[in-house]
Amino acid sequence: MVSTHWALPRVVIAAPASGHGKTTVATGLLAALRRRGLTVSPHKVGPDYIDPGYHALAAGRSGRNLDPFLVGAERIAPLLRHGASVPTPADIAVVEGVMGLHDGAVGRRDHASTAHVARLIDAPVLLVLDTTAQGRSAAALTLGMAAFDPAVRIGGVILNRVGSPRHETLLRDALAEVDVPVLGAVTRAAEVAAPARHLGLVPVAERAPESLAIVTALAELVEATVDVDAVLDLARSAPPLTAPPWDPVTAVGGPADARRPLVALAGGPAFTFSYAETAELLTAAGADVVTVDPLRDPALPGGTRAVVIGGGFPEAYAEALAGNATLRAELADFDGPIVAECAGLLYLGRSLDGVPMCGRLDLTARMTGRLTLGYREAVAGADSPVAVAGEPVRGHEFHRTMTDPRHGEAPAWRWDGAAHGFVTGRVHASYLHTHWAGHPDAARRLVEACR
C-alpha cells in the first residue's frame, strides 16, 4: 500500500525572466547533489524537452516535465511523486522553472507558470538573479517577486554573473535588508555555457561526450559557489506530499489482454523529444516498447506493430536520415499505426529542404525564418489510432519549419478555426506535441489498434 504522505525534500529553481541562469544552477545542483551520494529526481516546469536531457545526464535518471496546461493541475503533484519514486525513491527533487517566475500561459494569468507549479507541489523557491549592471535594486526586484504572490515562498537567492567581490558584497548587503538569504554567488568569469541553436540548447544525445563535460563543469561550479547544505535545508523545509503518486496502469485502465504488441519509439540524436511517461503508458496499456534510431538502425525490430516518432531535429540530420534508405522504405510501406509529432511529421514527408525522406505522406517541408511557438487547445479532426474525432486535447507547437500542404483532407487536429496535420490510413501526424499523461487514452487506443 502506498503511503499517503511522503516527506520528499524539494526545491524550485526560478528566475525573474529567461536567461538569468536557471538551467546552469539546476543542472549543476543536480550533479553536485548526486556527487554527494544522494538520489536526485530532476523535473522541469513547462513543455521543454531539451533541459530535461541535461537534467537526466546530471541526475542519472529520467528528467520529467510538470506542465499544468498539458496534463491538468490535478496531476502535477502526483506526477512529481511518481517521477521521484521510479526507478527508486529519491532523496530530493529539484524542479527547474520556465521563463520568469510568474509567467504563465498567454491569457491565463499565471496558469502553468513556475509560481503555479511551486504552489501545486508546495515547494520553496530558490531565485536565480542575473546581477549584471545591477546593485541594490536586486533586493527590490526580489522583494517584488515575492510580494506579487504571497503563496509562493522565496527561500533564498543565488546571485549570477557577479562582477567583482565588491559587487557581491553590495548585493549581499542589499538582500539582507529584505531578509532574503543569499545561498550562492557565481561570477561572470566562472560561467559555463552549453551550445545553442535555433530551438534552444543542443540536446544531450547529439553531443554526449561534450554534454557530460559540461555537466561535470556545472557540478564543480555549483560546489564552488553555492552553499549546497543551505539548499538542502531549504528543500527539507517543504511539507510532506499528500497527493497519491500518478500510476500509468491506473491511467490507461490496464492492458486489454495478455498479448503484448511491439511498439517502436523513435530515438537517437535526430528524435530526442519524448516524455518519459509515453513509454510508461504504452507499457501499462500492454505493449512492449523498444527504441529505434532512424539514423543508424536499418530496419524496425522484427514483429513491430506500431511506430511512434516524436520531435527533434531532423533538419540537422537530413542527409543522414536520407542515407538510411532501407528504413525509409520500410516506413513508407509499414501497415501498422504510426503516430508522428513535429519532427516525425517532417520525416514521414516526401522531402525536407529538398532532401528525400520516407514519402509516406504527400508533403514537402522546409526551414523558415519564423518561429511557431505556443500552447494550443485542439480537437481531433478525424478518427485515428490515438484520438476520436471531436476529442479535445491540449498541446504545444515549437518549430521553424512549414509543410506544403499544411494539412490533409482529414486533418489530425483543428484549433483557432483552422485545420492542422494529417490523418491518412493508419497514420496520425502533425506539428502538435502532446503529453499523454494528459490524455492517456491515446496510449490505450494505439495499443488496441495494434491488435
Automatic annotation (TrEMBL):
<dbReference type="InterPro" id="IPR004484">
    <property type="entry name" value="CbiA/CobB_synth"/>
</dbReference>
<comment type="similarity">
    <text>Belongs to the CobB/CbiA family.</text>
</comment>
<keyword id="KW-0067">ATP-binding</keyword>
<keyword id="KW-0547">Nucleotide-binding</keyword>
<protein>
    <recommendedName>
        <fullName>Hydrogenobyrinate a,c-diamide synthase</fullName>
        <ecNumber>6.3.5.9</ecNumber>
    </recommendedName>
</protein>
<keyword id="KW-0169">Cobalamin biosynthesis</keyword>
<dbReference type="Pfam" id="PF01656">
    <property type="entry name" value="CbiA"/>
</dbReference>
<keyword id="KW-0460">Magnesium</keyword>
<dbReference type="InterPro" id="IPR002586">
    <property type="entry name" value="CobQ/CobB/MinD/ParA_Nub-bd_dom"/>
</dbReference>
<feature type="active site" description="Nucleophile">
    <location>
        <position position="342"/>
    </location>
</feature>
<feature type="domain" description="CobQ/CobB/MinD/ParA nucleotide binding">
    <location>
        <begin position="11"/>
        <end position="199"/>
    </location>
</feature>
<comment type="pathway">
    <text>Cofactor biosynthesis; adenosylcobalamin biosynthesis; cob(II)yrinate a,c-diamide from precorrin-2 (aerobic route): step 9/10.</text>
</comment>
<keyword id="KW-0436">Ligase</keyword>
<dbReference type="InterPro" id="IPR027417">
    <property type="entry name" value="P-loop_NTPase"/>
</dbReference>
<keyword id="KW-0315">Glutamine amidotransferase</keyword>
<dbReference type="Pfam" id="PF07685">
    <property type="entry name" value="GATase_3"/>
</dbReference>
<comment type="function">
    <text>Catalyzes the ATP-dependent amidation of the two carboxylate groups at positions a and c of hydrogenobyrinate, using either L-glutamine or ammonia as the nitrogen source.</text>
</comment>
<dbReference type="InterPro" id="IPR029062">
    <property type="entry name" value="Class_I_gatase-like"/>
</dbReference>
<dbReference type="InterPro" id="IPR011698">
    <property type="entry name" value="GATase_3"/>
</dbReference>
<feature type="site" description="Increases nucleophilicity of active site Cys">
    <location>
        <position position="433"/>
    </location>
</feature>
<feature type="domain" description="CobB/CobQ-like glutamine amidotransferase">
    <location>
        <begin position="263"/>
        <end position="439"/>
    </location>
</feature>
